[in-house]
Amino acid sequence: MGSPLARFSVTVDDGHRADLDEVARALRDSGLQVDRVLGTLGLITGRAPVDARPALLAVPGVSSVDEQLRVQLPPPDAPVQ
Hints:
Blueprint: E1 5-12, H1 20-29, E2 33-38, E3 43-49, H2 53-57, E4 62-67
Antiparallel strand pairs: 1-3, 1-4, 2-3
């Protein structure tokens, strides 16, 4: 079985923003399941195996790959910890 999936936010550098669709395609080829392409922000979000981060960083035009952390608050009626 492969490694677990993590959510990533990929920032595209200014020089490649005009080619966002190409960068997204290359990220898909590197293992990212693209969820959203946010053109005005130069950001691509998606899921990939945790160990795929180095391959995603190697894609031309990618300036950073950050794992999205998930925070979950307890329900309002939960006891205080």
